[in-house]
Write a structure and sequence with these properties.
By secondary structure, this protein is mostly helical. The protein has helices at 5-9, 13-21, 25-47, 50-67, 79-98, 116-134, 138-149, 154-161, 165-183. The chain contains nine helices and no strands. The longest helix is centred in the N-terminal third of the chain and has 23 residues, at 25-47.
Length: 195
């Protein structure tokens, strides 16, 4: 039975996966609208390349669709957690394969702000954050992005990265310290003054 978008929007991601597996294209549309932007942001922050991030996000979504027929809603992983795990693996594979360091700085990821000055300040802050993130080791970068940008819980991050919760706590703590150190000399230039 094909449902309307309003009804579908009220459903959990796992239920949408089951509906998609049973032939409901609306379920795929609603789930894509929820998950694809998160997958893209995660990949973009780790890879620093919009085109590569789009490829990774699309590849991860295709893998999610292929997994739909076997999806269980009995307490197994949530589709969002599963997708972040796939994105994490795909981004690490790309980084390793390319052997390159990550360089960010594109203000494509800036949030909308009311005025031009505010937009420029926000873009500068995001550029600085992206550059600082690029200096972190892969696992720390993944943990920080998932925790503080994508707002996943520590247990969800542990599942995505395939490590324990304590390891996630350690990775995010070390990552935050490294980011703070990398950004400490830029407070005034980034508009934070004496904060």
């Amino acid at each position: 039975m094909v449902q309307g978008d309003a009804e579908l929007g009220a459903l959990e991601d796992g239920a949408l996966m089951v509906l998609f597996a049973n032939g409901d294209p609306g379920a795929a549309r609603v789930l894509s609208e929820r998950l694809l932007p998160r997958a893209f942001r995660h990949a973009a922050r780790v890879l620093g390349d919009r085109t590569e991030a789009e490829d990774v996000a699309q590849d991860a979504m295709l893998r999610l669709w292929r997994a739909a027929p076997d999806w269980r809603t009995d307490g197994a992983a949530k589709p969002s957690t599963w997708l972040h795990k796939v994105v994490a693996n795909l981004t690490i594979d790309r980084l390793r394969r390319s052997g390159r360091s990550v360089e960010l700085g594109d203000d494509d990821f800036a949030d909308d702000a009311p005025g031009a000055e505010a937009r420029l300040m926000q873009a500068g802050r995001l550029d600085a954050l992206d550059a600082a993130l690029a200096t972190l080791p892969d696992r720390q970068r993944q943990a920080v992005v998932l925790r503080h940008i994508e707002d996943l819980s520590n247990p969800e991050i542990a599942e995505v990265l395939g490590v324990g919760v304590e390891a996630v706590e350690s990775l995010t703590a070390r990552g935050k310290r490294a980011l703070k150190a990398a950004l400490s000399g830029q407070k005034e230039a980034l508009g934070y003054g004496d904060e």
